[in-house]
Amino acid sequence: MRAARWYGAGDIRVEDAAEPEIKSETDALVRPTAAAICGTDLHVFKGELTSVPGAIMGHEFMGVVEKVGPAVRKFREGDRVIVSCWVADGECWYCRHQLYTQCFNINIFGMGPVYGESLDGAFAELVRVPYADTVLIKAPEDVSDEKLVTVSDSLPTGFEAVVNGGMREGDVVVVIGCGPIGLLSGMCAELLGASQVIAVDVVRERLEAAKNLGFKTIDGSVSDVADEVRSMTDGVGADFVVEAVGRTREPLLKAIEVARRKGTVSVVGFHLHEYTIPSGQLWLTEKKLVFSIGDPIKNGEKLIRFIRSGRLDPSRIITHKLSLDEVPHGFELFTKKQALKVLVKL
């Protein structure tokens, strides 16, 4: 089969690879029909997370079941499915309490040995899916791949940012970072009753995408973001702030500054490093700091209902559609911020 394989920082090659096989009786094999490049993939692409040379990349995908192990009960050959990017066993204490992203056997596709076993990922013609009855989500036949594929990862991440953070109807919401996760967080905030969504970025194209979704925007390269937010909120600040940038301390500090007293900062940006935060300020102002990871297993079916009803259309953030052979080019576009969301059609 053909697959996009990682060999080092910036080095992805589309080449032949051995087809996966059923290893456990709870496995399934899924033939992807659509996958997407996620911001988290960039950490592997750039070498910030070390993968295994030759490992197949990608973790956000959907497809058709090709084969199931003898213990798989909920799915069969030919089923159209969305694959949760997070692999959970469905049986441990955390899974029994629907806390799947903290499963004792947690793993993620295409990200190397970050959780132990390196699971080959989505940019391939066939993928082995462990714990299939837990990890697979049935996809409706009457909704396109473009609208469903982000249910695998980025849409539940945006949704969890809002729900786990405790956003309330009527809140003024500020989103720091207008990448796919930030924009989907804003869309979910609107869906759940935010009175206003203000999107912050320094990249013109991403600010335009936010405007096209109906958000108010602030260009952080030319404005003092905290001053601008206060001017929009009678000097108070935002009720709820989503930090969707990650990587460094600065966007987190900005999110804390933008939140009003007793406001909430919901962090979904991917943070690799340890750093200090203004704990004294947080205590004095009673601001809440919440960290969230998207949970497709818990929220996938609910999000599919929102999509089917027309209340949510995540395909609006897709800017490029490429083939499997064009995956390296897709990473180049995404790294240079020339693409917002890259869909790979297989």
List the helices and strands and how they pair.
Blueprint: E1 2-8, E2 11-16, E3 28-37, H1 41-45, E4 55-56, E5 60-68, E6 80-83, E7 86-87, H2 93-96, E8 107-108, E9 127-129, H3 132-135, E10 136-138, H4 145-148, H5 154-163, E11 172-176, H6 180-191, E12 196-201, H7 204-212, E13 216-219, H8 225-232, E14 238-243, H9 249-258, E15 259-267, H10 279-285, E16 288-291, H11 296-308, E17 320-323, H12 327-335, E18 342-345
Parallel strand pairs: 11-12, 11-14, 12-13, 14-15, 15-16, 17-18
Antiparallel strand pairs: 1-2, 1-4, 3-5, 3-9, 3-18, 5-6, 6-10, 7-8
Helix pairs in contact: 5-6, 5-11
Summarize the structure.
Its cofactor is Zn(2+). The protein has 346 residues and is an alpha/beta fold.
Largest sheet: 7 strands, mixed
Which value, in Å, is the CA radius of gyration? 20 Å
Overall 3D geometry?
globular
Query: Please, how many helices?
Result: 12
Give the averaged pLDDT, no decimals.
96
Task: Bin the strand percentage.
Answer: 25-35%
> From the helix content, strand content and strand pairing, which structural class follows?
alpha/beta
N to C succession of SSEs: EEEHEEEEHEEHEHHEHEHEHEHEHEHEHE
CATH architectural type of the largest domain = Alpha-Beta Complex
Helix content: 25-40%
> Which regions are unreliable across 5 or more consecutive residues at pLDDT < 50?
none
The CATH class designation of the largest domain is Alpha Beta
Domains, number: 2
How many angstroms separate the termini? 12 Å
Number of strands: 18
Per the CATH scheme, the topology name of the largest domain is Quinone Oxidoreductase, Chain A, domain 1
- The CATH H-level homologous superfamily of the largest domain: Medium-chain alcohol dehydrogenases, catalytic domain
